[in-house]
C-alpha cells in the first residue's frame, strides 16, 4: 500500500472501533452500580444512569462515575468495581478484534504510519484487553487517561502520543473512533482526519454533529482513506 501524504500517526480508539465490545461496558456498569448503589435494571434511577453512560461513551470511566455519583469515594469505588467486572469479562473471552482491524493496523504500519491505541478505560483494563488479544507488539503505543492527565473529550491522549512518538506536525495525524468524544478529542488535537466509525456506540449523524471529517463503515476503511488523501 502506498500512501502519498506524509501521515505520521494514527490514533485509534479501542472498544467499538478496533475491539468488538458487544455491550460489555453496559454489563460492567450494571454490575458496578448494583454493588455500590443498589441500582439494578428496573430500579429507580437505573435507566437514567444507563442513558448517561451511553451518552458519555468514550470518556474516562472515572469521570463518568464522578458525574453520576457526585461523591469522590463512591465514584472511585464504583470505578474499581467497573474495571474489575470488565476485566473479568475480558478474561472470560468476551472480546475480539473488529473484523479486519488487525489487518488495517498492519497496513498503516507497513506504510510507515505509527499507530497508537487510546481508551477511556483505566490502565489495568486496557492491559487486560491488550494481553487477551495479543496486541502488545501490534501497535507503537497504548494510552489510557491516566497516562495523559485527562481523558476524552480532551485532546490529552492524542497530544501525549504525538510527543512520545516524535510526531513533528499535528496535521500529520489521523484519529478514528466510534463516539462523539473521540471526534471532539481529535478535533481539539488538530488532527487533519478525524474519522467516525459505525461499528460502535454512535450513529452517523451524531459523529458528524461532533465534527467528524469522515464517517466510515469500519476501521478497515481508514488505510484507503489516507491513501486517497491529497
TrEMBL record:
Q: Which NCBIfam families match?
A: PhnX-like
Q: What's the protein called, per UniProt? A: Phosphonatase-like hydrolase
Amino acid at each position: 500500500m502506498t500512501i502519498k501524504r506524509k501521515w505520521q500517526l494514527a490514533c485509534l480508539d479501542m472498544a467499538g472501533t478496533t475491539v468488538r465490545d458487544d455491550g460489555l461496558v453496559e454489563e460492567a456498569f450494571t454490575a458496578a452500580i448494583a454493588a455500590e448503589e443498589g441500582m439494578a435494571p428496573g430500579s429507580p434511577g437505573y435507566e437514567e444512569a444507563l442513558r448517561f453512560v451511553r451518552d458519555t461513551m468514550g470518556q474516562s470511566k472515572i469521570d463518568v462515575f464522578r458525574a453520576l455519583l457526585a461523591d469522590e469515594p463512591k465514584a472511585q469505588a464504583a470505578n474499581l468495581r467497573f474495571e474489575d467486572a470488565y476485566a473479568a469479562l475480558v478474561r472470560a473471552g468476551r472480546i475480539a478484534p473488529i473484523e479486519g482491524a488487525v489487518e488495517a493496523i498492519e497496513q498503516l504500519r507497513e506504510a510507515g504510519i505509527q499507530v497508537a491505541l487510546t481508551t477511556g478505560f483505566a490502565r489495568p483494563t486496557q492491559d487486560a484487553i491488550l494481553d487477551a488479544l495479543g496486541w502488545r507488539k501490534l501497535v507503537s503505543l497504548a494510552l489510557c487517561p491516566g497516562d495523559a492527565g485527562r481523558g476524552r473529550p480532551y485532546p490529552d491522549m492524542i497530544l501525549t502520543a504525538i510527543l512520545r512518538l516524535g510526531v513533528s506536525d499535528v496535521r500529520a495525524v489521523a484519529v478514528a473512533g466510534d463516539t462523539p468524544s473521540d471526534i471532539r478529542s481529535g478535533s481539539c488535537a488538530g488532527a487533519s482526519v478525524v474519522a467516525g466509525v459505525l461499528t460502535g456506540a454512535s450513529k452517523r449523524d451524531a459523529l458528524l454533529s461532533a465534527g467528524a471529517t469522515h464517517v466510515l463503515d469500519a476501521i478497515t476503511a481508514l488505510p484507503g482513506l489516507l491513501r486517497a488523501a491529497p
